[in-house]
Amino acid sequence: FRDTWPVRQFSGLFYWQKEGDGWLFGGNELSVKNSHLSVTADIKLWLDQQGQILMDLTGFYHDANVKYTSLYLPVSIMSDNLVKWLDESIVSGTGTDGGVVFRGLLNEFPYKTDTGGMDIVFNASDVFLEYQKGWPELHNTKSQLQLTDKLMYITSTHTNLFSSTHNNSMVNNK
User: Fold this and answer.
1) Cβ neighbours around 10 below 10 Å, total
2) What phi and psi, each to the nearest 5 degrees, are found at residue 120?
3) What's the confidence (pLDDT) of residue 151?
4) What is the pLDDT of residue 13?
5) CB distance 91 to 128 below 8 Å
6) DSSP string of 7-65, one letter each residue
7) I need a labelling partner for 134 at 20 to 30 A (CA). Which of 6, 16, 25, 174 fits?
């Protein structure tokens, strides 16, 4: 991620306990709110004697301002061109809901094998997208972004281009 995330409200139940030769740190019913989005999550972190951390995270979000989407993406595993495109293209819209699942050793991310995984789903509506400088904008777009540790898919069930309506489009980046 690019930077720390601003937090306006934070709550939840935290715990830690010794497990064998390591420690388990966790949080249940975590709730984080800021001016960009609202998040709820459960997380477990296992720390072994060698300092390796295994994370199991499940989270959900809603009421997101899509203009700030790139602040919450794992840009360290994304191509510079894709990050630049996302930064410049997404102008406005609402992230209605979505979720994230992340399981695996943190030091092995991004996962090249099946030792861990990440899956982010982000549903959005009323998106205004300037996808290419000098080209017409897409507006009133209803779409879904799915980002895994290996792939990105964007599907759109509705979008307007000029005075025409387009339905059921898909873009992927491998």
Assistant:
1) 11
2) -120, 130
3) 83
4) 97
5) yes
6) -SEEEEEEEEEEETTEEEEEEEEEEEE-SS-EEEEEEEEEE-TT--EEEEEEEEEEEEE
7) 174
